[in-house]
Specification:
The protein has 2 domains: 117 residues, HAD superfamily/HAD-like (Rossmann fold); 97 residues, HAD superfamily/HAD-like (Rossmann fold). It is 37% helix and 21% strand. It has 9 helices and 15 strands. The strands form 4 sheets. A 6-stranded parallel beta sheet has the order 5-4-1-13-14-15. It has a 5-stranded parallel beta sheet with strand order 7-6-8-9-12. Helix 3 crosses helix 7 and helix 5 crosses helix 6. Bound molecules: magnesium ion.
């Protein structure tokens, strides 16, 4: 028996694949909400606001309160509230999730490197040369460099597309400075998410599809680790160096077995 007081649950590859929910996703999330078990749905993707993620889940028949969604843009908000409170100017390469969060923090989004104390980067599907130019000029002028995540690729039905990490690399190549990274595999997003849950790390389970991020990070932080075989890892045979505490076929399998664990 293990004592589990809360769950951090990855989205992509764990609750859904593209626009399709994974078997058991709806039942698991509904059950957690009905039982008032603390949980957050966690994603490195900073493009959407929690409300937009809620809408995406709703289209798949999964009803969830936006307050239960925690993105790397939310981690950005918690990070800057902790370390850089007050009003600051940021040049942003990113989408709604990042911009909304910065506004909630009272920051000003500036349109050029002039007046940019910070350069904040997340996945931006409209990135162009001008944005990269303003970002590198701002950093050369002393702006602090923050990235929501450094995921090199972004999975899509067409294949792997450039992720936030590809944009970060374009900037780093020029300025030779690495950003502060908030998303997985950095522990920042987990620390803030667990703080929001109000649970202890060793009594919180992290559920995810990636050994090199979800499970590695969970182990590093002393959490209970649960791998589902619906995303990156497809079979138990692929598990070698990093051993999760539990392996489930999918969240339906997890949910079906959770009663034994709780
Ligand atoms: Mg995933």
């Amino acid at each position: 028996m293990v004592e589990i007081r809360g769950f951090l649950i990855d989205l992509d590859g764990t609750l859904y694949i593209g626009d399709r929910p994974v078997a058991g996703a709806k039942e698991f999330v509904t059950w957690l909400q009905d039982k008032n078990i603390p949980f957050l749905l966690l994603t490195n993707n900073s493009t959407r606001t929690p409300y937009q993620v809620r809408d995406k889940l709703q289209k798949m028949g999964i009803e969830v309160n936006p307050a239960k969604i925690y993105t790397s843009a939310n981690a950005l908000g918690d990070y800057i509230r902790e370390y850089f409170p007050g009003k600051h100017g940021a040049f942003v390469i990113g989408e709604d999730g990042v911009k909304e969060e910065l506004k909630l923090c009272g920051w000003e989004i500036v349109d050029s490197h002039l007046g940019a104390e910070f350069v904040v980067v997340g996945l931006d599907q409209h990135v162009d040369y001008r944005k990269l130019k303003e970002a590198v000029l701002a950093i050369q002028n002393g702006a602090k460099f923050i990235a929501c995540n450094c995921d090199s690729g972004f999975p899509s039905p067409e294949g792997l597309l450039p992720g936030a990490g590809a944009i970060v690399n374009a900037i780093t190549t020029v300025v030779g400075i690495e950003p502060v990274v908030l998303g997985k595999p950095n522990d920042c997003i987990i620390r803030y998410a667990v703080r929001r849950l109000g649970t202890e790390l060793d009594k919180t389970a992290i559920v995810g599809d990636r050994l090199d991020t979800d499970i590695l990070l969970g182990k590093k932080m002393g959490m209970i680790t649960m791998l589902v075989l619906t995303g990156v890892v497809k079979s138990k045979e692929e598990i070698s160096r990093i051993n999760p505490d539990f392996v489930f076929k999918d969240v339906e399998d997890l949910w079906g077995n959770i009663f034994r664990l709780l």
